[in-house]
Design brief:
The relative contact order is 0.21. This protein is mainly α. It has one domain (25-170). It has helices at 25-45, 49-78, 84-106, 114-133, 138-144, 149-170. The longest helix has 30 residues, at 49-78.
Length: 173
């Protein structure tokens, strides 16, 4: 589990505006959700085992990075602004997704249950997205809170770029 980072003054301020060109935190997370949904759709449509493996690798990397920026930056900033139950549920959902991601990455399309694991991961993520994006959900509460979503978005975008570069560099190819 990622260690919570302390809230920076830039992340939680009484002003909700920042001059950054980066998307705000919620826009960035929603874009990640859309990317994951598109990758899962590609996976379902693919008939090639090699292509399925490539898509599963992409979705696992994207979800790993997404989870990390939520856990390291977004969720800690939401403490006190969002119902604790929503943050607790998100943590449990992340733990389940991480377990499936590890099993998918350790396997391949020829393994028994491999495709089923990707399908269940897709279902987990759809549920998680619904919980975050629904009216009254985590994102709605964060918008109403005293958060500088632009500053959070900028910090999350920087961390995302850093993590993606690290993961791409660590890939065997």
């Amino acid at each position: 589990m990622a260690t919570a980072t302390p809230r920076s003054p830039a992340a939680k301020t009484s002003t909700k505006k920042s001059n950054s060109a980066a998307p705000n935190a919620i826009q960035l997370l929603k874009a990640d959700h859309d990317e994951a949904e598109a990758l899962f759709e590609q996976f379902e449509k693919s008939r090639s085992a090699d292509k399925k493996k490539q898509i599963a690798d992409k979705v696992c990397m994207a979800l790993t990075v997404h989870t990390m920026i939520e856990e390291e930056i977004f969720y800690p900033a939401c403490k006190g602004e969002v119902e604790d139950d929503l943050l607790d549920e998100a943590e449990v959902e992340h733990n389940g997704a991480k377990q499936l991601i590890a099993e998918i990455q350790a396997g391949n399309p020829q393994d028994e249950l491999w495709e089923a694991k990707v399908t269940v991961l897709s279902e987990y993520i759809k549920h998680h997205v619904k919980e975050e994006e629904q009216p009254g959900g985590l994102f709605a509460q964060a918008k109403k809170g005293d958060l500088d979503l632009k500053a959070l978005g900028a910090a999350m975008a920087m961390r995302k770029d850093e993590l993606m570069a690290q993961m791409k560099a660590a890939r065997p190819n």
